[in-house]
Give the backbone structure.
Amino acid sequence: MPKPTVIRRHELPADDNRRLAHLCGPLDAHLRSIEAALQVTLARREASFRIEGQREAVERTARLLDSLYERARGPIGEQTLELALRQAQPTSAPAAGPWPPAGATEGQAPVVLHTRHADLAGRTANQTQYLRQILGHDMTFGIGPAGTGKTFLAVACAVDALERQGVQRIVLTRPAVEAGERLGFLPGDLEQKVDPYLRPLYDALYDLMGFDRVVKALERQQIEIAPLAFMRGRTLSHASVILDEAQNTTREQMKMFLTRIGFGSKCVVTGDTSQVDLPAGHPSGLVEAQDILQRVPGIAFTHFGAQDVVRHPLVARIVDAYDRQRPAPPAGR
């Protein structure tokens, strides 16, 4: 039996027509997006909104209008709207205040990272939790699909710590495993051979620090980017250490990496257990680490989902489709 519909009048401040226009979007395009996403009917007369739909959807819509109005001092971009709609979905944690959330829980100071281009904060509840865990734990795992900000936020935390002199250097590493292809012989010296595997880490640093500052930091060895195979036998002290694409580590590589951490260091491990590129019969070190380390004091885990994807909206739908097709991620290919 279908749930009954309700009608609610929701009033917003009527003293700022420009902000109302930003909230509604060009030709009320934002209101139509809200209707489609939350399955309600919206009608507006000046600052008064008539919301019709199932009771829970009507309540979520009212909260979303309030939070978007708080952000409508300027035009609301497509990405901002899409992420706000995703936060308002019933599968996500309910958004009770302005979006994005300023902190994980009421009363906590917001987590803001200061970088060269702009201040960064988590855009979803999981991203905010992830930032808090990185700042509050010596070792943090960020596990989830592509586009959820796992690597970028980890690098941003490392850059912030370096610029505040919280650490002396940044060490970024990835396993040199091809994504389902065999590239064969690569020309050049060792650095040129491994550079394609490490390029995403360079891209994140360039975005956060700018090209010139990254080059200088590399020359001064404040930043080191190296394949995982180069980590054996080292002790990494007073450093921000990030292992990216950790789903492509073997059991032995993961244990080796995790035991490199020295005093004054923070370690972040990121990966997507649904995209393992190891040969058949080689279980993923990240999948195993989840099970072994889940209850170890001092280690935190953040699990991201499609609702945390901050790329094109299609990416979240693609992730959802693959998750429905293959609910249990494999331990290896």
